[in-house]
Write a structure and sequence with these properties.
Blueprint: E1 12-17, E2 23-25, E3 36-39, H1 42-50, E4 54-55, E5 60-61, H2 64-77
Antiparallel strand pairs: 1-2, 1-3, 4-5
Helix pairs in contact: 1-2
The structure holds zinc ion.
Length: about 90
Amino acid sequence: MGCGERGAQRELVRFQADSRSGLALAPESGRRGRSAYLHRRESCWQRFATRKGLVRSLRRSVDRSTRGTFVALLREDEGGTQFGKEE
Ligand SMILES: [Zn+2]
């Protein structure tokens, strides 16, 4: 978990390390490999982006620029088809 908080599954964004040592949204189907979660909100993404070092649930360290790139992707995606509508 990116911030240590808990939340309902639908409030979370699931992601995983990709083959190029970046981060990518995890597909809905196919639960291969380790994945990590972030809440679907800006405050949580901010915190994730400014941390450094290990992402425990991925057992991998992720540098700042990779985090920043991923958070930018999340922001772009917000409101798009990937996340659906807020209830
Ligand atoms: Zn959070």
